[in-house]
Amino acid sequence: MAASSETRIPIGRALPGYHVHLVDDDMQPVPLGWPGQILVSGAAVAAGYLNNESLTREKFIINRSPSSLTSRGYLTGDMARMLTDGSLVYIGRIESDSQIKLRGIRIELNDIAASIIKTSDGVVANAAVVVRDAEQNSFLVAYVVFSANKAPSDPAQYLEQLLPELPLPVYMRPAQGIPLDRLPMSASGKLDRKALSALELPSNPIHTPASKSTVDSLSQTEHRLKGVWDEALGHTGIPITKRSNFFATGGNSLLLLKVQAGILQEFGQRIALTELFRASTLASLATTIESSIGTTAEDMTDQVASSSSSINWLVETDAGDLSEWTKPQQMAILTRNTASLTVVVSGATGFLGRAIVNQLQELGNVSQIHCVAVRNLESDAARLLEQSTDKVVLHAGDLSLPFLGMLEEEARLLFSEADVIIHNGADVSFMKPYESLRAPNLGSTKEFVRLVAPRQVPFHFVSTAGVGLLAGKDVVEECTISSTDAASSLSQVDGYIASKWASETYLENATHRTGLPVQIYRPSSITGDGAPALDILHNVLQFSRQMRAVPEMTRWRGHLDLVDVHLVARGLVHRAIIAEPVEESRITVLHLSGEQVIPVEDAKQYLEKETGYRFRILSIEGWVVEAERLGLHPLVGAYLRTIASREEPIYFPRLQTSMKW
Ligand SMILES: NC(=O)c1ccc[n+]([C@@H]2O[C@H](COP(=O)([O-])OP(=O)(O)OC[C@H]3O[C@@H](n4cnc5c(N)ncnc54)[C@H](OP(=O)(O)O)[C@@H]3O)[C@@H](O)[C@H]2O)c1
Question: What keywords are annotated for this sequence in UniProt (predicted)?
Fold first, then answer.
């Protein structure tokens, strides 16, 4: 749950005689940094309400309190987060009508309103968000009041552009924006949400009467495409217009496969999934379909490959925003107590992240491991917590958000204590376009640097061997890849690799500008139990073993470079914690690769030797069909089909490494 920026109030610590715990709905303590209800216990807590047994039973808890608590506790109905120094930040009342649950996710509506106002940069003076119901579905509607002197000429169009670009997770982005002259207030001067929810939604959704870009002005292609979306999404109740974003209207990667099949049926066109990810609005996808009619599959593939060619990479990787940290007098010198290190890690819930945290826990000189931008306590985070010691502290957040989704106070406090940063988290998706990966991958790197540059905290960044493709060499050395080398190849690589290269280059610029010591790690293909479900090479190897058949790789060139996840984690943790700290003003690169290097043409032989069986060679299409029958994820199948349709060879460059495994 996010905290409302309007109600973030530091409230210090418990008074003497009281203990404060933050608990979840099941009365279990929440991790540090996580929002929870304040439960007060201690000798000074009253016995209950006078003459009100039912309320006493509800609010005063005896014997069903968290394990650490043996006395009576009082549930205050107030929400707070605990900061690393033990102090509390008040979030709001638990019964607050601004906190809702939408499709199982708790959402703070005031955060969305605050984000609209902030992102509009003065155009929106006030905003409120409510959840509305249509048919069997709920969706978010934003009501906005424009500033008198900055109101846009086409308010509806302005909102259509603003809302999908809010720096919020997709599920928090309102599906509709409606301009109002003023927000309704109750007699006590508070926002009257009931009155807002009672307002009739415009019959022509999203738009004001002034707007022309309405549902009935959809082009013929858009109209037919909308039918395909409706079919894939079911009845979400969220209105679909030209500028609707598939992912903001309830779509996800798997539903995109349905859209792909629907487009094939409706238009007779096969649109590559990477292109579907890129053209995620109704209008842009309709344009893509129109331009694909009469276009060959090869032309389409070229369009996919060059989807990021319009980006100005100099601007993208510029570290000019760090100018305030270039003055030495503003930098506090980092005094690192090497006997008791505080390490901040991102991506701790992932495949490599869990291995890194496990290694860090083993080290006597690491006293605290702060896992930041943890998205979902119920999923992998719960698993991480089960395996971890009390050195591990989880902080809720998201890599795409300012301050990595933490409260500003929490982020500043945390980074003022950090001795080492390991930025390992990333959206690892080969299908998504660069534009979708910019915020979680490059944006998070910039956010980290902004938080650590003032103290020059050594920064360890997990990149990928894939950036080696941009070096334009058969053998890639352990050094940074300059913009000049990469320029001609950036449009040929997928958005994920581009986002990693952009992060590396931004870090290089940041080091030159501020002196920030940076270590870049480029792991090759990481193997081991728990590899991400969509990891391409892992799937190819696993299903090949199962089927005793390899896909035909005649257009694949170079080497498959495999390295075990625990070795990667060990190599990284050794360099980050045990080895000499990275020197100031230096950026160095380490290739975590080369444990097992298999020339692509020997892959079949390698698997035969490993398993003792003979292997068949299947066409990529034949291999995918057979693997899908055995459970290959449809997105992996779709990706393999996409690359199979490309004419040009697929390269796996050889990485030089100084690691001795
Ligand atoms: N696996 C490989 O073969 C390989 C090779 C080279 C480089 N790498 C790099 O190694 C790092 C770890 O990869 P992995 O294989 O461990 O992948 P993974 O299992 O998918 O882990 C990615 C981690 O990043 C987190 N994350 C993604 N988007 C986020 C967001 N918007 N906000 C907060 N957290 C977010 C994930 O959180 P959730 O748990 O919430 O999803 C997860 O903890 C990545 O930087 C990747 O580029 C991996």
Answer: Phosphopantetheine, Phosphoprotein
CATH top-level class of 100-213:
alpha beta
Report the top-level CATH class of 5-93: mainly beta
Nearest ligand 1 atom to alpha carbon 376:
40
The token pair at 115 is 């984000």
Mutate to test the pocket of ligand 1, among 171, 253, 346, 352 (most ligand atoms within 8 A of CB): 352
Q: 389 with 408: CB under 8 angstroms?
A: no
Question: Closest ligand 1 atom, CA of 400?
Answer: 31
Secondary-structure class of domain 218-295 per CATH: mainly alpha
Measured CA to CA, the distance from residue 483 to residue 487 in angstroms comes to 6
The DSSP code for 504 is: H
pLDDT tens, position by position, 450-488 = 999 888 899 999 999 999 999 888 889 999 998 777 877
Instruction: Give the nearest ligand 1 atom to 439 CA.
Output: 31
Instruction: Report the helix count and the strand count for the chain, using DSSP H and E.
Output: 22, 26
Whether 655 is in the pocket of ligand 1, judged by its Cβ within 6 Å, is: no
What ligand 1 atom has the least distance to the C-alpha of 462?
A: 45
Of 398, 401, 428, 460, the residue with max ligand 1 atoms within 8 A of its CB, to mutate for a pocket test, comes to: 428
**What whole-number distance in Å separates Cα of residue 482 and Cα of residue 624?**
37
Residue (of 136, 135, 139, 93) closest to 112 by Cα position: 139
Tell me how crowded residue 310 is: count the other CB atoms within 10 A of its CB: 8
Whether the pLDDT of residue 208 is over 50: the answer is no
For residue 350 and ligand 1, the question of a CB distance below 6 A is answered with yes
Q: How far is the CA of 420 from the centre of ligand 1 (A)?
A: 19
